[in-house]
Amino acid sequence: MEETLRDLELVMAAHREALAQMRAQQSPRRAAAPVVTSDPRALLMQALTQDIERVSGIEMTGMMTAKLNRVLSSVAPSELEAWVSTLRRLPPTHPEWLSLIEALTVHETFFHRDRAQLELLAKLLPELVADIAGAGRHKLRMWSAGCATGEEAYTLAILALLALRDAGHADDTTDGIVCHRPWSIDVLGTDISRLVLTQAKAAVYSTEGLSSFRDLPPMLQRFFPVMPRTRETGDIEIRGVVPAVRQHVRFEHFNLMSGAPPETGFDVVLCRNVLIYFTAEARFKAQLGLRRALRPGGILLLGPTDSLADADAYDLRWGPGAMAYVLKSTSHG
Ligand SMILES: C[S@@+](CC[C@H](N)C(=O)[O-])C[C@H]1O[C@@H](n2cnc3c(N)ncnc32)[C@H](O)[C@@H]1O
User: Fold this and answer.
1) 287 C-beta closer than 6 A to ligand 1
2) 14-18, 55-59, 129-133: lowest mean pLDDT where?
3) CATH 3.40.50.150 fits domain 115-331
4) pLDDT tens for residues 24-49?
5) For the chain, which residues make up each domain, given as ranges?
6) Which residue has the CA at smallest separation from atom 13 of ligand 1?
7) Which residue CA neighbors atom 3 of ligand 1 most closely?
8) pLDDT value at 18 more than 90
């Protein structure tokens, strides 16, 4: 009981912190108020920002609008109208749309981001693995939605390997952890940006500066051996994801505004630090897709400031400073 109360206090503290962060973000994130204007350029920009919100879900706050203006500063006023009207006729998957969205998105990420939440997931995984085995399955399926350069997807694969090893379904080897047959792990990483997906597939990361390894626990370093230096890398140290992890991870292009999820039946779905950039409507739409992607009993993990759109569909699990949502069997689809 005492432990439960302590956990509850920690969750409440995390919530207070998340709320404070959200409030701090609110003033710069406030949606740009539509300006009543007859200026043709301003009218064009208003139409464009509405289209961007529809296509990508990204909320065109004052800050984002300023970013858009910077991106378009090199487009001559005479070309802007033609470009905007062409863009409006193109499908969201067109390279022209993708490169515009690319310029507006934030791709900040690193391995083992949000330790508290990943520790909670690690605690829940044994039960999940037992459930999967009980259902006669031998595959752990996870989706990192909005994976950026892939660090989150590889982190998930490592946690899954550790859980299978601890359950006796995989062995530690000098090359990493190897699953016993017929067990396997399938982690899907998706993002709207094709550029970050290319980097994710390459699975190599620099250790320079505020790197992808900034919060990696020392015990996980073994999954990222230092790569041999080449003429291109010079003195920069590069670490690669070990093949025993990499083989379980694949990446695909996917826009969370597409409606239906890319696949269904996932045991775990993570969508962190993505929905904070979305409009309320887009957050709702994206979360509906995340729910459809989960199997009943599957776990949803959102970012620390994201609120759950359909709380009745889930059972809450909490750990120190983190929360996870387990899809009720009656709420699937
Ligand atoms: C800040 S990163 C978060 C990366 C990772 N989830 C994490 O928490 O470290 C946000 C990612 O969401 C992606 N994104 C933004 N809008 C998206 C959309 N409509 N569909 C899919 N991905 C989107 C961006 O391209 C970016 O790579």
Assistant:
1) no
2) 14-18
3) yes
4) 344 345 455 555 677 778 888 899 99
5) 31-104, 115-331
6) 146
7) 273
8) no
Strands lying side by side in the sheet with 322-327? 249-253, 184-191, 139-145, 266-271, 294-302, 322-327, 314-319
191 C-alpha to ligand 1 centroid (Å): 6
Q: 110: closest CA among 205, 177, 244, 186?
A: 205
Q: Tens of pLDDT along 89-113? A: 999 999 999 999 999 999 999 999 9
**Tokens 């487009």 found at:** 75
Can you tell me the distance from the alpha carbon of 232 to that of 229, in angstroms, rounded to the nearest whole number? 8
Class of residue 5 by CB neighbours under 10 A (exposed 0-12, middle 13-18, buried 19+): exposed
Q: What is the pTM of this model?
A: 0.89
Residue 303 C-alpha to ligand 1 middle, in angstroms? 11
Strand, coil or helix: 143: strand
Which residue is it, tokens 């041999």?
Answer: 228
